[in-house]
Design brief:
The complex is a heterodimer of chains A (308) and B (111). Chain A is of the alpha+beta class and 308 residues long. Chain A has one domain: Roll (T-fold), CATH 3.10.520.10. Chain A is 29% helix and 27% strand. Chain A has an eight-stranded antiparallel β-sheet with strand order 1-2-6-7-10-15-16-17, with helices on one face. A three-stranded antiparallel β-sheet of chain A has the order 3-5-4, with no helix packed on it. Chain A has a two-stranded antiparallel ribbon with strand order 8-9. The longest helix of chain A has 18 residues. Chain B is of the alpha+beta class and 111 residues long. Chain B is built from two helices and three strands; from the N terminus they run ααβββ. In chain B, strands 1-2 form a two-stranded antiparallel ribbon. The longest helix of chain B is centred in the N-terminal third of the chain and has 44 residues. Chain B is rod-shaped, with a radius of gyration of 32 Å. Classes of the chains: A alpha+beta (308), B alpha+beta (111). Chains A and B meet through strand 1, strand 2, helix 1, strand 8 and strand 9 of A and strand 1 and strand 3 of B.
Chain lengths: 308, 111
Amino acid sequence: MLHEFHFRAMNTDVGIWLWNPSRQVDRLMQHAMQRFEEAEAELSRFRPDSGLSRLNAAAGLGPQTVSPLLWTALNRAVEAARQTLGLFDPTVLDLLRAAGYDRSFELLDSSSDTLGPSAKPSCGWHQIRFYDSVGQVELPAGVGIDLGGIAKGWTVDRVAVSLATHGPVLVDAGGDIRAVGMPGGEPWPVAVQDPFDETRDCAVLALNGGAVATSSIGRRRWQRNGQTMHHLIDPRTGQPSDSDLHTVTVLADTAEEAEVSAKTVLMLGTQAGASWLKRRDLRGLLIDRRGREHSVGTLPIYTMLEIA
Amino acid sequence: MTNTAMQKPAPRRKSKTNSAVWKSGLLALSLATVVGGTTLLGQADAAQQAVAQQPAAQVLVVERQPSGELLIRQDPPATSSFRSSTSSLNSVPTLPQRPAFRRPITRTRGS
């Protein structure tokens, strides 16, 4: 039977679907939920007591000992920055704050215009120093880390892989989705939401394993100094991305890769982004600001007898 | 010459016999194909009906409420029954072997 479990973690809605003959999977689901809660407790920049917040607060104060969870997540983030030549950069925290995204989005007044400017925001993933032998990390003064999207994708992957020993599973955290296996050989039907009309879908994908994630400038928007801001900061300009793309959905092997790739392509724009995906043999659906859809690679479309 | 003349009809008789046997074989083969094909089509149709009438997979939904309480419901209800209308469907397993997705289970969206 198909077990479905929903809860909130990491400031988003999490859903887990597990195909397992047993009626008793509560313990598994509780364990999955704990993994999300552990990740949030350690990797969130909005929790003042998280390992990440402590590290950010200690920028400029020398090497800091971090937990194995934070150590791994930081290494994943820096590796992603290296792979994207810095287009994905976990050190945009000060730029995000400067843009006004200085608290959990639920607490952000989307029409607020009252936030003052941040002093000399800086970024640069290459400034993070790792001391492997002692498990310590050092941030220079003025550099802060935001693991937001990549931490979510990475946690989705971890939970999906751990549950997969009990049956085909799909984990979704706010649209970052990872599937392992197929229930009864049937692909998972996963819709791609229309960013301009949330009541309809652009497509329904057949996910037979692997992952899909979407980045969009349509969400997490707010006003600042009369300008509409969004949370996807382009490290090249230090400003919210102004490419011609509005929303990017990428299919990849892992949710972490899909998440990072979607952000990167969104900043690159339609042409360069499509080339970037092709070079990595990734597939995606790019929707530009005029609402035009551009498919990269052949998307696996789910065929259903009946869609309510 | 005589020998030759006397020997000639024999192969002709043999050829006629072979032809008859060959035609009979072909006829039998065609008949077998038609009968076999009809049977297979019937079975395939029955199997298709069986799949179509297979019960939707039971879904156990657990939602954690903001209060921390777990809300559990079954979809469809466990009491929903499944009846087979023909004998050919009796072999359909009671438990579905695959989920019957009728809509996307979730959506990827900008985060």
